[in-house]
Structure formats: structure tokens, C-alpha cells
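[Q] Does anyone have a clean C-alpha cell version of this?
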Amino acid sequence: MGRKSVASVHQLKTLPPTSEAFVENVKRAHFQACIWRSALTGEAPDMDPLENGWVFDDDFGVLMPVTLPPQTEIAPAAVMKLIQCGCSSETPCSTERCGCVAGQMSCSAFCRCRAERRTCRNRWTLLKQRIEDANDSDEDESNDEDDSDD
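[A] Here you go.
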């Protein structure tokens, strides 16, 4: 590691893509190649973009690339522990300058913000916390129902 700091060695942009991310990228590249090839014939390829690495965004009415299939971790847990941001502004993790925000992943306890609700402004961390809270409340409700059956 020499003189490099730990933070500069473990950056998300230096990691290779996961197998799942690679598959989605290949789907989009294949779809694009088919469109380019068909441009010479004047007939659009008989392919559905939603089955070839794209998803429709209802809010904006556009196709967005699928970078990872739903419910797929961006990296193994051991790797996620190595990645951390070093945000030190008044509103940490609120811009693309944050490595976690730029990588579209939530901050962790290893980040300078510690992924704390009162300090971290990373939209991915906030979304993860909301999902966890919703899951916790669902579990509490199901436990209450189980208790009332007794």
C-alpha cells in the first residue's frame, strides 16, 4: 500500500463490476447494437427494451438503465465494509462529491457520517432506513397479531 491512504485505496470506482451488473450491461449493449444494425435496414428490431436492461420511470416518462437486478447487493458485505466516504461538510453526504452518493449506495457505520439519521443526508441511506423502519413496523404488527391469537 505504500504511501497511499486507506481511503484512497478502497474507492468504489476502482472495483470491478459484479457479475449481475455485467449481465445488465451486456443486455443494454446488445440491445443498442441491434438498434444500430437495424438503422441500415430502416426496420426497428423486434425487441422489448424492458426485457433488455431497461426499466420505465413512471415519474419522468423515460427509460432508465438497470444497473443491478432488484434485490441485488451492489457488492458483497465484506467489500462494502471497506468502502467509506469521508464527507466533512455541514451537510455530509448531500452531493455527488460523496463517494457513497456517487456510487448510488447507502453510507455505513464505517463512513465519517456513520450513517446516522441526524447527520447523514445521503438519499440512499435515508431510503434504506425508511425500508428498515417499515419492515420493523410490519414485524411488530405481525407479532402483535400472533400475541392476540393466544
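[Q] Thanks! Anything notable?
[A] The helical segments are 6-9, 19-39, 77-82, 99-102, 123-148.
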